[in-house]
UniProtKB/TrEMBL annotation:
Presence of keyword Metal-binding: no
Record keywords: Oxidoreductase
Domain Pyrroline-5-carboxylate reductase catalytic N-terminal residue range list: 9-100
Listed name of the protein: NADPH-dependent F420 reductase
Amino acid sequence: MTDVNGLSIAILGGTGDQGKGLARRFALAGHPVLIGSRSAQRAQEAADSIGAGATGDENAAVAARADIVIVAVPYEGHKALLESLRGELAGKIVVDCVNPLGFDKQGAYALPVEEGSAAQQAAAVLPDSRVVAAFHHVSAVLLMDPAVDKVDLDVLVLGDDREATDLVRALAEAIPGVRGVYGGRLRNAHQIEALTANIISVNRRYKAHAGLRITDI
Ligand SMILES: NC(=O)c1ccc[n+]([C@@H]2O[C@H](COP(=O)([O-])OP(=O)(O)OC[C@H]3O[C@@H](n4cnc5c(N)ncnc54)[C@H](OP(=O)(O)O)[C@@H]3O)[C@@H](O)[C@H]2O)c1
């Protein structure tokens, strides 16, 4: 497995549930974690709430400083934010966990994305970055819960750059209980993002925080 020890991780939109949850687990695993936000003050408050050495700053500042950058903003703000950070993100591994979903009375449903998926949109907007799709199905509630020692799921990692997907698989395994599994090329990210709508339905029906496991590997 690729060695990810000591790599710093920035999280764009790290003030939200998913960003803070991932930040907490990576900080606990010993990674330098940089929380990003549109507001340096909100970022600092989120970093303080996580502890474990996490720091906070504006999205552009943390994107420029970190080795790996995770995108954890709502789909609505995804494209514009990445367009604004093209320079800072050049040459970096950018990990997209964004699920383009709508919600109505029937629950969650997948939104159409012109580029095919949020991850492909990121790749289109960031031609000089190494875009990887991962962490779509991991529950922010479990990531944040101090009573949860192990998060019981496989994280599917997709991308067109094998070295980058191997690195993100190893990073996923910094979270106790998680296994990182290669899940295909970026052109197949749509199904992974859309599947989150099904998992949300499972969670509502069974009052759970469900995760996926891939068998026989
Ligand atoms: N929640 C989960 O369990 C979960 C699981 C897997 C994947 N995801 C994905 O992770 C992403 C974040 O989820 P979340 O629940 O953490 O969302 P969230 O709390 O609604 O948003 C996260 C952060 O994004 C920033 N933000 C909001 N609108 C923005 C915009 N228009 N442009 C730039 N930044 C904006 C905000 O930070 P500032 O105001 O501080 O800038 C906010 O705190 C989503 O795409 C979601 O599909 C979530």
